[in-house]
Amino acid sequence: MDKVVPTAAEAVADVPDGASLAVGGFGLSGVPNVLIQALYERGVGGLSVVSNNCGAMESGLAVLLAAGRIARVTGSYIGANKEFARQYLAGELEVELIPQGTLAERLRAGGAGIPAFYTPAGVGTQVAEGGLPWRYDGNGGVAVASPPKEVRVFDGVEYVLERAIRTDFALVRAAKGDRHGNLVFNKSSRNFNPLAAMAGTVTIAEVEELVEPGEIDPDAVHLPGVFVQRVVALTPEQAADKKIEKRTVSTPAAHRTESH
To answer: What's the rounded mean pLDDT across residues 11-32?
Structure first.
């Protein structure tokens, strides 16, 4: 089955207001920027987003966030996104913060058909006991707080029950993909993209390099095409447009030697 869609706009044309989205990416790595921009241009709003973070440097999900298109975020990291923090504290945005490993497993479990699982992460904290602020009232008070979760003991160790995550759509970015939807991810972009893809009912992948079926060694496939419904091939310019969050420049070795 050829799953290639000609444009990103066509690929996201049926994403409605209020949809839930699992979005890949780890920091600025592996973020499906082209698909996110296509959603922005459509004017879709009221979205519930599940992602490790909510964009940075005015890219990725930060584009939708700044435009007020996101109603709820399920994630692990606010980081240096000041607008994310402002909306959260002002009561404009509902936020469910989850331990990073738990978020990854909730997405994977959703894709694997596992409804829930037990984990030791969060036991003895508000993650398990409830009371984490999901939404503030804008005046410093808590309007909506997380509920308590079931805790059970296995072999003398306490574990908290976590629900799997399934979403209406998933948006991911891969380094390589074929027309059947088999995907290969590059380095840290593999952290969350395969898991987000598994959790989506309809998964849309933007790929930096589109190849024909059979050109990817089966052993090299990170995510099989059974989890992917649509593939968008990026232009060379789109594929090369990658931002660096924090640029670090080291002193040349020759200069360090002379300084001594």
So the answer is: 95
The string of pLDDT tens digits covering residues 132-178 is 999 999 998 999 999 999 999 999 999 999 999 999 999 999 999 99
Q: What per-residue string of b and e applies to 31-48 under the rule 16 or more CB within 10 Å gives b?
A: bbbbbbbbbbeeebbebb
- Give CA–CA dist 242/31, Å, rounded: 9
pTM over 0.90, yes/no:
yes
211 backbone dihedrals φ, ψ, rounded to 5°: -125, 170
Label each residue of the chain as H, E or C.
CCCECCCHHHHCCCCCCCCEEEECCECCECCCHHHHHHHHHHCCCCEEEECCECCECCECHHHHHHCCCEEEEEECECCCCHHHHHHHHCCCCEEEECCHHHHHHHHHHHHHCCCEEEECCCCCCHHHHCCCEEEECCCCCEEEECCCCCEEEECCEEEEEEECCCEEEEEEEEEEEECCCCEECCHHHHCCHHHHHHHEEEEEEEEEEEECCCCCCHHHCCECHHHCCEEEECCHHHHHCCCCCCCCCCCCHHHHHHHC
The predicted pLDDT at position 246 comes to: 72
**Angle (CA) 175 178 180, round 5°:** 135
Position 59 confidence tier, pLDDT thresholds 50, 70, 90: confident
Q: How many CA atoms lie within 13 A of 201 on its CB side?
A: 9
* Separation CA 20–CA 93 (nearest Å): 15
